[in-house]
Design goal:
Elements lengths: L1 H18 L15 H6 L18 E8 L2 E3 L5 E10 L5 E5 L6 E6 L4 E4 L11 E5 L4 E9 L7 E9 L2 E13 L1
Length: 177
């Protein structure tokens, strides 16, 4: 009888440790699955977004906003981290005519743009090409002002590449006083 109780206690502590580690869920781009994931979930698909532009196939976006709940009395700028990962087996090249790579919009729940990231940044004519090799990623860490946000409402942060409008991602967040 004692063995069963000890075994049950060990299982409960191990399960609590596994589920209690993540403080906030952080979405990540779809990657190659490990052997344990393949054994536990054999039929789940490895989803890679499909774009109309064949040059963009294999690219996946991930957006992280810090903090998830914005306290307007404490936070003056919102930290935005965009990750562009190449999940395909071939390199992907992106051409940019200016120094601007990404654009960030802060919108209200109705979809009206409140703040644009490019309004406070100098953009110059500087052509460049970025090559993303297979299994590599690029991270863009930027901040945007929370000046136009009002408390107790849900807002949307939308990040996209102005030259490649299909590469677009949105995330909702809450603003509190």
């Amino acid at each position: 009888m004692k063995r069963r109780i000890v075994f049950l206690a060990v299982v409960v502590f191990v399960a609590a440790g596994m589920f209690g580690q993540d403080v906030a869920p952080t979405p990540t781009p779809a990657r190659k699955r490990g052997w344990l994931s393949r054994i536990l979930h054999p039929f789940s698909p490895n989803v890679v977004p499909q774009y109309k532009d064949p040059r963009l196939r294999g690219l996946a976006l991930d957006l992280q906003i810090t903090p998830q709940t914005v306290k307007l009395s404490e936070v003056r700028q919102l930290s935005v981290k965009l990750t562009l990962a190449n999940l395909s087996k071939r390199p992907v090249g992106l051409d940019f005519p200016t120094s601007q790579r990404i654009e960030i919009y802060l919108m209200n729940s109705a979809g009206e743009v409140l703040t644009k990231w490019s309004e406070n940044h100098a953009i110059v004519e500087k052509p460049a090409t970025i090559l993303i090799n297979p299994s590599e990623r690029i991270e863009y860490n930027e901040t945007i002002s929370t000046r136009e946000l009002t408390p107790n409402k849900v807002f949307i942060a939308e990040v996209f590449f102005p030259q490649y409008l299909e590469l677009r991602i949105r995330q909702k967040f809450l603003a509190v006083p």
